[in-house]
Amino acid sequence: MNYWLVKSEPSTYSWDDLEKDKKTTWDGVRNFQARNNLKEMKKGDILLFYHSNEDKAIVGIAKVAREQFPDPKDKDWIAVEISPERKLKTPVTLAQAKADAKLANMVLVKSSRLSVQPVKKEEFDWIIKRSEG
DNA sequence: GCCAACGTTGGC
DNA sequence: GCCAACGTTGGC
User: Fold this and answer.
1) Phi, psi for residue A60 in degrees, rounded to 5
2) Is the overall model pTM greater than 0.85, yes or no?
3) A45-56 tens-digit pLDDT
């Protein structure tokens, strides 16, 4: 069981869109590091859903519904399917994560541009604790 | 809206 | 194979 974080601009595709759709194809990733992370994803892995730009916060938890398959728009790349698990009671903002010593090494904090990134279990647990006490 | 940081491309 | 130029992301 692995933990990941995926980013999306809410104006492009938000958590609410995902809840409405029940399932979505996570495609359009055009970065090698991000692609490698997509490849590693197994069905049932947990994803933190992050809103970039407007919110700059982790807003929900999703899971991998289908493991890697060719990106329908470009066969050289890959996609996965994800489905919503639950919304966080309170979003955990980037500012909070940055201010938190326990999350100082999180990829989100250190390398903010990577759109699909691994999350350590401790980091995941800590974020949930921050959000829901 | 600006710009820093980073990844990718392409000329040499 | 290096590195400058360019494009994109995303925080501010």
Assistant:
1) -160, 175
2) yes
3) 999 999 999 999
Residue type, A14: S
- Going through A1-133 in order, the beta strands assigned E by DSSP cover 3-8, 24-26, 46-51, 57-71, 74-93, 116-119
- Residue A43 corresponds to which tokens in the numbers above? 């069905």
pLDDT digits (tens, 9 = 90+) for A118-133: 999 999 999 999 998 7
State, as a whole number of angstroms, the distance between the CA of A33 and the C1' of C4: 23
Query: Residue A94 gets which letter from DSSP?
Result: H
- Closest nt to A31 (CA→C1')? B7
User: Could you list the protein residues whose CB lies below 7 A from any atom in strand B?
Assistant: A 31-33, 111, 113-114
Amino acid identity of A56? K
Comparing CA positions, the residue from A20, A14, A24 lying closest to residue A51 is: A14
pLDDT of residue A82: 97
